[in-house]
């Protein structure tokens, strides 16, 4: 049925149904419809750029609605009834925002199982799940007709309204969360990026203010550590204890701006572990990137292709490897944001096999497209793909990352949604290093993963729920309030239609950006109904969001999912010195020059030291297959009589050994 | 000793000549320190000394590519000077050593080099060559490296990723050094350990009250070695420079090297006698002096399966070259660190034991054959130093450095009988099968019937030339492929946002120090696609200087496209 209607709506080539083409994802090139080598997206400039005023109403654009829906409208898949007599609620004005909602006949999909049941919500919580529920009269009822009902998506990585050198990314918390909701995501976690030198707490409050006034769905915040000193440590403690933050991001890239040294990372990780938080890492070797950027610019390469040439994927893998090493040393849980390349993903997968507590987050862009577009002759298009780490030019990357996501080597998906319009990107028109970084993806995330992983048979719907929602909730200690359909959980739900097909386009997406990096990509699977905080947000293709209704969701430290293992390892990791007698032999005279390996602390104060001294020593001995305190075969032998005495003035070397 | 004679002419009869590629029976005739003839029924002058090999193997003398003889350390010197050290080397069948020159940070590389030359020329009993360590980096050092490469016969330079605030180089400096040496045809050697994390871990150990030698290995876990190896390989790959990892001590570091080789990186790994022969469990010995004698960096791995694993990789070709990193201190010297393990001078013995130990661990166990044995103890080192086939091969015209190897002799290693001046031997009590029965160095009999006859000062400095084929053939080919081209695009004439020119992440800020290297090199070995755009780019006009149009009233972005 969808086949005929598609023929009518789209001008796709060929007879093969689009979803067959998706299968196997063998096609190395994204299916582009409008965006050729030489032209911008048709119609994408309309009501974009600088024309923000017309957007927030939403109704203006709702007629040319988002998704080219391929459904057969004559046979409604979902019925929404109101006992008061209104049979359908397709009209914004008539909508009754009921606090009570019943969904009948849904196939409830959690990360562990799927089952058919009805579900009743009240005041934004799930109150009952089961059959033949006893519910008050007059509740709004949605008949799901056996369709899948899953926990709303959690986008763990967004950068809405992000300031960059006086500019701000074009999707603010309103527009961004609106796009998220349209794609089936009911919670976002944004990154607070304090300017180096600024206070973490005041930056955090600033972001809270922005988000509270505009966000349409629940949200939480990560805080980025952009510099390191004693004050930062105190603020981190305050954030964890009083402000509901349990994750901090450090940068191994952006030399001389955000980048921390290995020693600082070690100290930050030690603090994070003591606080029970999660260490997130932007993994790229900033030193090498800076050298490569200079070299590429010297060669006269100033366009967006220079971005990816100066940030080869090896440099990403190197930084991932280094952060895994530091995390192992400090026994700190690690979370790699933006896994963009096969080699970086491989390093994570290997580290997990060795027992490291590490999580990898591929993003919509790395799962859906590749870096060949950096060579596009259309500057604006090439620039729209700029993000760091860059998309890999290897066209097999998306498929590979989707496979690792399916098998559990990568666990969480975000979008790293951070959109700048072409005029903003053009700041770097003569120098790729100045192009503001970020790609879209919050709206496309769920559909894209469904299309690439579930349609192709890489994962089932339960694993889909795990990677789009449940794992994120577990890692960031929101589970089971979020990420699960259960009595008592938040009523953030998505009724998923696995058969609908849409073509992603900047013309119809909810972001303010003029370009969509997935332009022309046909994806199968989309939300039919989205419920956030117990209210219907998306139904029948129309989006009804309320600016500012999103709540900040505080997160407690010591997430079980992460810290159970960490705690067990800390207990094991006590180190003991070897008891020995005093050495009473001759000692060579030395000059006072400090020796090579004095345990020099870093130039800045190292706040980790106090914590480490007071706290319990931790050490990851997970991989160690032998006992460190093993007896030596010659322990009991008396000290060896040294025949050879190299002219010690005090006579022979006399080593006391313990009996 | 009095009875021995030095002949300039020597005939070795009835030996089985073993090179890295094949073994065959032949006689060898040497004159003036050079092999003149190889074959059967040679026509040689009368009255020359003849050595009967009786069918035993005749192999090229070993090359120990990594020694630290007579190394100054905070006012003292290692107990084995060039005379004692090279004597021990000859006793074990090694006829050439390559020592490391370590300039104090801030001092001249060339002066240090000359100093080492003086010490070695005066005392060495066998031929030698020198690596120079780069302990700081600036334009002057760069010029000195240039001179050393071109005029002084040094082709390999070591950099340190450990020893924070002392020898350690930053990633940017490594990048610059690698780029420079990659162009000049040098070999970059790295001491691979993450010095920053080590410094943190050392502080933590000392705070916890762990001051003995076990703290040394606890503060330098093998992961930190593997991490640094990984990073060095990444930088070498970016700069298209051949990489040589000194002292491969752990399984994880060796694994990283073999993985990188599988991906095509030009990287060589050097396990040392100690890592091939013993392990780090001894750091927990209750005998402080014994535990301290094992202190070296990177430390011996406490995993007792490590030596066997490294021998296997050596046999399979994933690791290529063996050294000893022989650097011996007396117990009194080690005792400088009796209350603080970070102060213990580092280094283990191994120059004498190297050949026998590898024979015992790898050949008698069937991991490798005698040809591979020659490759890892001698030939590969000669190739990477660009001394092949003068060294590392038995052929007409090669130097007369050779060893008659007895695979059946058994001896027990002990400090009582070894030729080093150290009081401890890290291989104490180990029984080794296989050893040299005759050693000929510079065409002269040095070891015969168990008697060692060495002459300090006869050793010559052997200059190494840049661009060794063994490493650089591939690097050169890649360089030709690695030309980058920009995408030709029209001028962007759309609106440009206003922005505050605050410094930002991506700005290509130069490192604090000067960066002398500029020339582009790039390794595209793994790349599956071509970076070179269509060849039409050259004729196109260069983009004119951009006029910035900030928020044009027209509003709409208008991207000019080419064509």
From TrEMBL, chain A:
A GO molecular-function annotation: hydrolase activity, acting on carbon-nitrogen (but not peptide) bonds, in cyclic amides
Amidohydrolase-related domain span: 148-537
Sorted UniProt keywords: Cytoplasm
The keyword Cytoplasm belongs to this UniProt entry's keyword annotation: yes
Keyword Cell division set for record: no
Annotated region (Disordered), positions in chain: 49-74, 629-659
Cellular location(s): Cytoplasm
The protein's name in its UniProt record: Amidohydrolase-related domain-containing protein
TM spans (from-to): none
InterPro entries found in the cross-reference section: Amidohydro-rel, Hydantoinase/dihydroPyrase, Metal-dep_hydrolase_composite, Metal_Hydrolase, Metallo-dep_Hydrolases_sf
Basic and acidic residues composition bias: residue spans: 60-71
Family (UniProt): Belongs to the metallo-dependent hydrolases superfamily. Hydantoinase/dihydropyrimidinase family.
Highest rank taxon of the organism: Eukaryota
Annotated GO CC locations: cytosol
Pfam families in alphabetical order: Amidohydro_1
Automatic annotation (TrEMBL), chain B:
Chief location category: other
Subcellular location field: Cell projection, Growth cone; Cytoplasm
Keywords: Cell projection, Cytoplasm
Biological processes annotated in GO: actin crosslink formation
InterPro entries xrefs: Amidohydro-rel (IPR006680), Hydantoinase/dihydroPyrase (IPR011778), Metal-dep_hydrolase_composite (IPR011059), Metal_Hydrolase (IPR032466), Metallo-dep_Hydrolases_sf (IPR050378)
Region feature (Disordered): 495-521
Compositional bias of kind Polar residues: 506-520
Domain Amidohydrolase-related positions: 57-446
Top-level taxon of the source organism: Eukaryota
CC annotations in GO: cytosol; growth cone
GO molecular function per UniProt: hydrolase activity, acting on carbon-nitrogen (but not peptide) bonds, in cyclic amides
NCBIfam families assigned: D-hydantoinase
Record family assignment: Belongs to the metallo-dependent hydrolases superfamily. Hydantoinase/dihydropyrimidinase family.
Its job: Necessary for signaling by class 3 semaphorins and subsequent remodeling of the cytoskeleton. Plays a role in axon guidance, neuronal growth cone collapse and cell migration.
Name the UniProt record assigns to this protein: Amidohydrolase-related domain-containing protein
Gene this chain is encoded by: DPYSL3
